[in-house]
Amino acid sequence: MGQTETARVAVLWRGDHEVRKSATPANNRFYRIFEELTAIGIEAQPAVYSDEMVDEVREQLLNVDGVLVWVDPIHDGQTRVVLDAMLREVASRGPWVSAHPDVILKMGVKEVLHRTRHLGWGADTHLYRSRSAFQSEFPSRLESAGPRVLKQNRGNGGQGVWRVEQISPTGSDTVLVRVLHARRGSVPEETTLHDFMARCEAYITPDGCIVDQPFQSRLPDGMIRCYMGADKVVGFGHQLIKALIPPPPEGPDSDAAQPGPRIMHPASAEPFRALRAKMQLE
């Protein structure tokens, strides 16, 4: 790109043919991103994607300087397998892709909880890469360590995240468990450990695994997100979440069962001083 040329960036999200045909910088939920890019002199263009349009979108991306990608790992049963292969190809031919699929596999998956378990935020975290390891290790760990949380490696919106607790006495011929999916609207269910584990084995794929952590009883206190700029904390977000917490008597769709707003705090917020130090020094 020459010094006088305008940089071109495609903003990519999932949609169908009609959405792609009608998309403009102003008629979608990313309109503020388009506005900010335009304000600094970047030509931003919509790049609505579906697997059926992969060739058309590839051609578009090869004619821009960069790509900003907003596509969940799982959406209505669709994965990013086809998309990620195309993005790798595009990146190898010049355009800058954010986030690159290989970066996501290092930083944006649940496996990072296992790789960083030795740090200050770590816990009793285990990883199952094979069905045999899952079958041989998880039952005894659940029995001895108490309620656990299982997480598939890639997911969003609570998909593939389960709270599991054993409810049958130790030594029972059939082990019964109570499980709760993290997806909004879920309710606890009781099943056998065998049947539940069979359900979870679908998460163990050549590129997938299951992360196993203890259930945190302080979960009702909320979740804290720590936002980083390189190696510095730039802010915090505190939200009272309801995932993995049994719904109130009013039901899973009631107002009382919905998560609270995310309250943002500056990096200097005193309640998070210890967390800030851990994030910046460890």
Short structural summary:
Residues 221-280 form the DUF6815 domain. The protein has 282 residues and is α+β, with helices and mostly antiparallel strands. Helix content is 28%, strand content 25%.
Account of the 3D structure:
The longest helix has 15 residues, at about 130-145. The protein has helices at about 15-20, 30-40, 55-60, 80-90, 100-105, 110-115, 130-145, 195-200, 275-280; strands at about 10-15, 45-50, 65-70, 95-100, 125-130, 150, 160-165, 175-180, 190, 210-215, 225-230, 230-240, 265. The radius of gyration is 22 Å and the shape is globular. The protein has a six-stranded antiparallel β-sheet with strand order 5-10-6-7-8-9. It has a four-stranded parallel β-sheet with strand order 2-1-3-4. By secondary structure, it is of the alpha+beta class. The chain has nine helices and 13 strands. Strand 3, helix 4 (about 80-90) and strand 4 (about 95-100) form a beta-alpha-beta unit. It has three domains: about 10-105, 3-Layer(aba) Sandwich (Rossmann fold); about 110-215, no CATH class; about 220-280, no CATH class.
